Amino acid sequence: MSTPGPTSHTRTNTPSRTESRGRVDVFDGLRGVAIVLVVLSHGWALWPSDYTLGHRPLSTLFASGNFAVSIFFAVGAFVATRGLLRKAHSPAGLHPLVDLVRRYLRLTGQVAFLMLAIVMVSVLDDTDPATDEDTRVSLVRVVTYSWNWYLQSNALVARSDLGHLWYLSVYLQVMALVTVLVWLLRRRPVWLVVVLAALLVGFEIWTAHVYPQEGYYQALLRTSVRIDAPLTGALAAAALPYLTRLRPHATITGTLAAAALVPLAYFTTPNAGYFGVAGHLTDLALFTFVVSAVLAPLPRLVAAPLSWAPLAFLGRRSLGLYIWHYPIFFFIPRHTFEWAWGWRTAAALGLILACTLVSEWLVENRILRALGSPAWRELDYGIPAYVVRRWRAWRGKPGPVSAVDEAGRSSPAPSAPPRRRPRADA
Fold first, then answer.
1. How many whole angstroms from its chain centre is CA 249?
2. C-alpha 288: how far from its chain's center?
3. Rounded-to-10 torsion of CA 233, 67, 206, 172
4. Please, are residues 263 and 60 in contact by the beta-carbon 8 Å criterion?
């Protein structure tokens, strides 16, 4: 008897377009909540924070950045891993190097635009406290996605306004691991679930050792400590085909998981809670939520707030908002120190939104179009096949090649124009 794999239920459980759109809106809305929490948690750079951080439960609203990042990690890794699994079982197959290059370009577009802005600030702004050498090293570390490793031992010389970008470094590092595991175990989907689950348990145990021994700062930056949430999302994607029998209960479990995230935001606000039992329960709640949201539509009581248009708008642009908010939070106070904190905050939020929309228009959309081009879709069959096709084309003997898009779905032949721009997977 053959072992059921990730494609076993594809034909019988294909969701309607309305259901798929609803799930996308829910995930976007959840990321919208997360980006609001991240921005509020860094608001100490703009407004007085003694009261907001000193009174619970108010501090939960203004100090839940780590909780919010776990949401980003879990949802992003879940969506990305589902795309990897579809590619692995597509005619083109999964080619780890090609996929990692795609992911690097997808993440780095707006980051590179920010780096250009940082260089201009470093050269033209006399109030910038960082030296040219510190700026140069920081930028190199950011774009090579080793920034979190550098911060662990160089916090005093690293640019403080880029500190938040540790998140992108950890995300790319973990997704590189997940990509390799999906490729290695593409014919053994059960073992992929087992390996991801074992890694998740092992790293949770490791976190219990690192946090008391090294303190919260090192724990916050270690890939091996922050890996739990993205592994949770990847495990949910890998285990999803084996959980379809739970579909009749998915509405209830999804509702309970969404409800559990509210008190968990409170209990994970102290660092001890985030790196303790409350953090583990957050991973469990996020696992349950993303799986349940795919298996069955969530009740209106849960779906309507998360699908609220402003939240979905923020969620779709959460990457850009995340990238731009922290440097602007440092830049604005240096030039508005005589302003009231309310006006300073309004100026900062307006500039963040403007920079996000401009970078999306100038960079993000162009990168997505480029990654959906015929040349890139040819690469979905791997670099050797691409080289052979280029050689045959040069010799005047081109051959038809179909491909799959970034989400793993079949695409037209490279000679045909793309039907749609591929949706971002993180």
1. 28
2. 18
3. 50
4. no
